[in-house]
Every structure is written in C-alpha cells, then in structure tokens.
Specification:
507 residues; alpha/beta; Rossmann fold; Dehydroquinate synthase-like, alpha domain; 12 strands; disordered N terminus
Length: 507
C-alpha cells in the first residue's frame, strides 16, 4: 500500500508540473500516454537544450505564474537527469480511482533484483483484482459504518456460519453497526451449498438489506459472493459459471452489477477469497462445484481485524496458512509469473514462515495473526494474477474425493512439488529459497527443506495414508489431475507419471 501511495504522489507532482511552459517535460501526464513517454521525454529534453535550459550557464526554464521551483528527487551531480515518474505510476493512480478496471503498465524500469522477470523485459503487464478498500488493524471492525457510508449504504445483513453466529465473534460487529444491522443469517455451511446461498438472498430481501457483510472463512465469503451473483443475475445462477469453450479455454459471461454491496471480514488467514474475483458454490444436483469469476465478485471493502482471527483453532489456522503458502510458491514458479505478483508472493511467503508458527503456539498474538492475514491477502492477489498450478490441481481431486481441506493436501504436496518445479525457473529459484530462509547450493532443495521445517511446527498430517487415501488410488488421482485447467500454468510440462510420483512420495 505504501508503494502504491508513493507512486500516486509522484504522478500527482508530475501532473502539477505539466502546467509549465511547453519547454518543460511532463513524463507522467496519464497512464494512457505512458506508451509514448520515452520518445516525448527525449524530444522535450532536446528542446530544453536548444533553448539552453539545463545547460551550465544557460537560462532557467520558464514557469507559469504560481508554479514554484521544485526540488529534484535525484541526487546532485553531473549525472543528474530530468525527474521521471516511476513506471506505471499514472496507471496505479488510475487503479486507485477505478480499482475494478484492468490496468496495463507499460514497461520502463527494472523493479526487482537480478534473476526475476522485470518490467524492462516484458512486453506488457496486466495487474488486476486489488482490494477496493482495505482496513487493517485490531478493532478495525469498528470502521464498518464508514465503509458502508462510502458505498452510500444503510442496512447490512451479516452472513456467517453457525459457529461464528453462536459465539462472541459478532459482538464487535453488532456494536459497530448499531441501527445499521438489518439482520444476521447463520445458514452458511462448509463448501457453500447452493441452498444456503438461495436462503441468504431471501433473508437479504426480507430485511431489505443493501449490503452483505460476510464474517467467516472462505465458505462464508463465497456464500456472500453467491448472494451477489443471484441478486445481479435475477436468479439465472448457472448461466454465469465458468465453462470450457469449444477450444478448451475457460469462458464466462460478464455479470452486471446488482443492488447489493459486499464487505468481507475474514476470520481465517488463508482462503484469500476477500481479495479474489472468484467463488465456488456446491450444487448437490450437479454433483460438483460451480465456479464463478467476475470483477463484480471482488468485495467492495475488506476488513482485516486480527481480533476476529484469534478464535481459529490450531488445525484450521495451520491449514489455511498453508493454503496461502501454496499460492505464494505456485505463483513464484508459475508459467505466467510477473514482477508484481512475484514481489507480493515473496513478501507473503516470508511473513508466513515467521508468523504462522507463532499464530499456532500463541493464538492471541495479534501481530502474528495480522501478519498471516496480510500474507493471505497478498497471496491471493499474487496467485490470481500469476495463477497456481500442480499442487492446486492435485488438491482439487484429493479434496473433492475425500472431503479434505485444501490446505492439508497443499501442505503434504508442497515440498515435493518445489523440488520438482523450482529448477524450471533457473536463477529465480535462489531468491525464493532466500525468502523462505533456506540455505545451500541447491535452491530447490533449500526451499523445500524450509517448507518441511515449517511443517514440523504445524499440527497437520504429512501423508495421504493418514487421511484415508489408498495406494491403489494414486493412478486414478494422477489421471484426473491431468484434466485440471491449472496444470496449464506449470513452469514446464508435467507428465501423468510425474504426478503419480508426487502422490507416491507423500503416500
């Protein structure tokens, strides 16, 4: 957030400077003009030199009335060049004003160290699905009325599961909302069945709510998104699911905006549904989950209050944390990895290595809980822009067949997957290992060993046999994994035999 703010301020300064005479450069007029900045800056610099501006002994640049002298951000010396806006600053400023719109950043400068893809080496870079509003910190649920007011909303339906609704977790939410609380719906169930979503929409209509506030984990946040889909689609729910087109590519109709706003208050640190444009709704009649992906599914606001996360038990905290870690690492070796997703994933992985064990041994450690919440959110933004691959693809099959939490299967598979796939990204692997605190000459082995050391501190099963998977079922699981669309995002082609070997290694 600090980086984005500083870039926005740089863009504002450049726009203010553009009111001076045509002799002066204005490299950051807008994100749209970014594609022609390099040539325009060069011609502007030549113009200044023709008039003697910027030349020792030459006249000072003319300034419009009221425009004062600005101090250069560059150090003094003979190598000083005209002040330039960082690459993408105008685009990031536009992102602040229009957060749901896709933003193309035109490459111009390197922003990461050696080894990783940089903006100067990429043709284009698209960054999407940043949270629109984000409040962070202990007690931040008190900001819910302000967030509703920003959306011009007055009546909220709180959506949660029975555990959250029947305990003390809603005390702060109720107190904050006061008269703005229109009702509480506690019918959310695991894996978000369609019937619960339909009942939630009916509850919203009965209490005339204009806002859905989801308080819970990934299933609860997905349920709120499902209510938004039903409302916006007029009940034509299945028409907006992601499907495979004739060419095999994922296709989805565009969902229009409905009447309901959604504010997410996650109580776990791992699903990252609060930062993502996706939702999964289980349809018992179809015997599978319906998958949805639309810009309108990113919540209007997110509240990361660590006091809401202290109620999560050790197993749940560990499993959700490893889901976030899996997104980080799969984003780091993804075929579609890029500079911004890489930066987010590296930082999030470092936070989890240190904070996740603390959140288990000291559940009331608000700093550790906050770090895990931030890491989960960053992992979501990273993975939705770079995409996960093999570990998640296997997890879909194992989780769907055995009712296993994704984080448990992710934790089992991650070390072996890192050993298999991290070498495919070459020199970038050493930076991944360093972020995880690993050491040694082999980056893949160092990174995998760091993950195994983390797992030693977590109360999670480490083998498939512990969760009821038979050794004779491995071949069928491997074959099913090959049909998962996420396999397309592995850094190199992965064979069915390699998937079977991964499963055998953790059996």
């Amino acid at each position: 957030m600090k980086v984005r703010n500083s870039l926005s301020r740089a863009a504002m300064r450049a726009r203010q400077a553009s009111v001076s005479s045509s002799d002066e450069s204005a490299p950051c007029r807008s994100a749209r003009a970014a594609a022609t900045r390099v040539s325009s800056q060069g011609s502007s610099l030549m113009s200044r030199r023709r008039h003697g501006h910027g030349v020792p002994g030459g006249p000072a640049p003319r300034r419009a009335p009221g425009v004062g002298r600005r101090r250069s951000a560059l150090p003094p010396g003979p190598s000083r060049r005209p002040l330039q806006c960082p690459a993408g600053a105008g685009a990031l400023s536009a992102l602040r004003r229009f957060p749901s719109a896709p933003v193309r950043l035109v490459p111009r400068v390197r922003i990461l160290g050696s080894g990783f893809p940089t903006l100067s080496t990429m043709p284009t870079l698209e960054v999407r699905y940043w949270p629109k509003r984000l409040r962070i910190g202990p007690g931040s649920v008190a900001d819910l009325p302000d967030l509703m007011a920003e959306q011009r909303r007055q009546r909220a339906l709180v959506v949660c599961g029975r555990t959250v609704g029947g305990g003390d977790m809603l005390v702060g939410v109720r107190r904050a909302l006061g008269a703005g609380l229109a009702g509480v719906f506690t019918g959310v169930e695991a894996h978000t069945p369609l019937a619960a979503v339909e009942a939630g929409l009916e509850a919203a209509r009965e209490c005339q709510a204009d806002t859905i506030i989801s308080v819970g984990g990934g299933s609860t946040i997905d349920a709120a998104k499902g209510i938004v889909i039903l409302d916006a689609s007029g009940g034509e729910f299945a028409l907006y699911q992601v499907v495979r087109g004739d060419g095999g590519a994922a296709e989805r109709p565009v969902l229009g905006g409905g009447s309901l706003a959604h504010i997410a208050v996650p109580t776990t640190a791992g699903s990252a549904s609060e930062a993502m444009p996706t939702a999964g709704i289980r349809d018992p009649q179809a015997g599978r989950k319906l998958l949805f992906w639309d810009d309108h599914l990113v919540p209007a606001a997110v509240v990361l209050d660590p006091e809401m996360a202290v109620h999560a038990g050790p197993e749940l905290s560990a499993a959700t944390g490893m889901t976030a870690m899996a997104r980080c690492l799969e984003g780091l070796y993804s075929r579609d990895r890029q500079a911004i997703s890489t930066g987010l994933a590296l930082h999030a992985a470092g936070l989890l290595i240190e904070a996740l064990p603390r959140s288990i041994t000291a559940p009331d450690d608000l700093e550790a809980r906050q770090a895990c919440q931030l890491a989960a959110l960053m992992s979501g933004v990273a993975s939705i822009n770079a995409m996960a691959s093999v570990v998640h693809a296997i997890g879909h099959g194992v989780g769907g067949r055995y009712g296993l939490q994704h984080g448990i299967s992710h934790a089992m598979l991650l070390p072996s997957a890192v050993r298999l796939l991290l070498p495919a990204i070459g020199g970038e692997g050493s930076t991944v290992a360093t972020a995880l605190g690993g050491s040694g000459d082999d980056p893949a082995e160092a990174a995998a060993s760091a993950i195994e050391s983390l797992l030693d501190k977590l109360p999670l099963p480490r083998s498939l046999r512990e969760v009821g998977v038979g050794e004779d079922e491995i071949a069928e699981l491997a074959a099913g994994t090959m049909d998962d669309y996420m396999m397309d995002y592995a850094p190199r082609p992965v064979s069915e035999a390699e998937i079977a070997a991964l499963l055998t290694a953790v059996w």
